[in-house]
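Lab manual, section 2.4: Encoding a predicted structure.

Procedure: take the sequence of the chain (225 residues), apply the prediction step described in section 2.3, and record the output as structure tokens. A sample record is shown.
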Amino acid sequence: MMADENNNAEVVTEGVAVEAEATEGRRGRGNRGEGRGRGRREERRPAEEDDGTIEKLVHINRVSKTVKGGKRFGFAALVVVGDGQGRVGFGHGKAREVPEAINKATAAAKKAMIRVPLKDGRTLHHDGKGHFGAGKVTVRSAPAGTGIIAGGPMRAVFESLGVADVVTKSVGTSNPYNMIRATFAALSDQTSPKSVAQRRGKKISDLLGRGGSKTAEADAEAIAE
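Recorded output:
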């Protein structure tokens, strides 16, 4: 009887030791996995910060999809991205979680960036109008010191674009998606004297020299897109 009890005790001890080793192994693998995950996140953050782009989160909306058994909820994000030097884009993304939706929208915005010519690097060359759906916007160039007179989604666009002086007006809708698209419609129609001169086969000074202005050459040299 004593021998049987000893054998049973040894078997139980070995079983406990094996289970402890398996548990420790699972913990070790979990810790290693967590370490790798943290490492990847830490490596991605500096890349996003060093990219030099300006990201503006304009709107987040909760959306739902009706499936068998009920509704599946998610989030939709609208993001504006620019470099502050005349390039800007917008995008939207949907996901089950907010951070993932923002990442999708940011990636889409970076792929759809457009170039907008700026006067002296601070304002638009001329006035413009944009229309999309029920949204109608008007953008106007402004003298130095005016600031960004715009509200809501339009302000995010001009801050990301790098515009310092502009006057805007939006009528017809307060939907951020329509306002953003109408604003981009107005910005896509912007042209610069340099592009107009190249298209017409003339010099910039010929376009700016109204009535034989003596400062036409200086004005032409000061133009920068």
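Check your result against the sample. The chain is about 45% helix and 30% strand.
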